[in-house]
Structures are given as C-alpha cells and as structure tokens.
Amino acid sequence: xxxxxxxxxxQIVTPLIVQGQSPYQxxxxxxxxxxxxxxxxxxxxxxxxxxxxxxxxxxAKFKPRKYHKTxxxxxxxxxxxxxxxxxxxxxxxxxxxxxxxxxxxxxxxxLTMIFTEKKLFLAFLINRCTKGAxxxxxxxxxxxxxxxxxxxxxxxxxxxxxxxxxNPEELETGITGIQRSSxxxxxxxxxxxxxxxxxxxxxxxxxxxxxxxxxxPRESLDGKTPYDAALETLGEDVLKAxxxxxxxxxxxxxxxxxxxxxx
Length: 263
Prior knowledge:
Blueprint: H1 3-18, H2 23-29, H3 37-45, H4 83-87, E1 95-101, E2 109-115, E3 120-126, H5 131-145, H6 147-153, E4 156-159, H7 168-172, E5 182-185, H8 203-214, H9 226-233, H10 236-241
Parallel strand pairs: 1-4, 4-5
Antiparallel strand pairs: 1-2, 2-3
Helix pairs in contact: 5-6
C-alpha cells in the first residue's frame, strides 16, 4: 500500500473512530476500504492511522451503587405474570422495558424499551419515576399509533419489579378499555448502576441519542441497522409514531459529545 492510499483510508477511518464508531460499523458503511476488521485494529495498534487505541469505543463500566429500586410490594401483581409464565410462551420477539434513574439531584428518569429481535431502542424522558408517568407514555404512544397497531407491536412486555411498573392492569388496558399488552416480570434482582444527571436533558436530546444508536449497523442483524430492520417489519408509520429518523452513516456519533448539557 502506498503512502497516498494509506492517507486516503485514514481520512475516512479516523474521523469516524473519533465519533465513537467501531471498525465493524465503519467497514460495513465503507466497503471501498477493502480491509478486514482485524486489519483495521492492527493498523490502529501500529500507529498507521491518526486514530489511536485510546480513541476506540470502549464498553462503559459501571460501579454498583447502594441505591436499589423500590420494589413492588403487592405479590398478587405477579400472578400469571412471573418470569416462568413468560418463558412458557416461548416467544421469538418481545419488548424489554426498564427505567434508568438520574443521579439523586434530579427526579427525571428514562423509560427505555428494546425490541429484542430487531434491537430497536426507544427511550422516553419522564419527570418522575411513577406508575402514572409510565402509563402516560403508553397512552401517548397508543394515541399516535392507534390501538390496533399498538397491540400488535407491544403484545408482550418483560420488565423488572420496580414500583413504577406496579399496576400492570393500567398498562395493559388501553385508552378505549381494550387490552393492549401483556406485562411480565423478571425474577427479583438487586443490581444497580451509578447514576448520571438527566436534569438538563430534553426529550429532543433523548430522541437524538436514540436515533444515532438505532442507525448503528449490528453484526447480529447481518450488517443492518436496527432502524432498517424495524422498518421492514414494523413499517414507516410505526417508526414515525416513535419519532425515529435514520442518521446518515458518517454522521452517527456514539460519544457524549453528541449532547452538550447547558446549565
């Protein structure tokens, strides 16, 4: 390879590495680079690209925190909704739901949903981590999508035993009184993660983050992005109801620089 050819590759690779993209992601979107993932790592390790090992996206590490979620106390809630009941359904596709709490100086919380088959990720900013706030997100989505579409997309949901999910019948019952979903609960867990403040985060910021995540090619999807995979099965109208938009491959940024908090 000539010095000029190496420089041309570097002009493509380094800016994308700095944006938090992985070698796999870069090569999926730039087949003209004509190299393997392993080769790219080798080039970076040997200093042949401007990007260095320290620039490579690393998996975030979290320290356990002493705070634990407030758990559901009414045991009757779990009747026919346990993890064993869920497993008996033998589902290929379902939605995982959780909340990510802010640091203790803010009550804002992210309600997150992941479509397991297509790896599609959704997040909704709520001002308080309460049953009513979660219900409001469900109602808002049903109004945007329509009851029939909602029941098709959110047929089965698996979540933890946090108190914000403590009234499953309210979540399962739609705005017209029709059952719109079935809620199931994981076995009790005691893990936690160190919080980050969401106080200055807006839903616009959350949507932007989600769009960049969903525009990242996944090896488990044969190089497709979760957005494109979901587009094939859920359709454009559903993705619009989720307020999702595709991000151009070279614009995808998976670093904290994507969102700048202003205090």
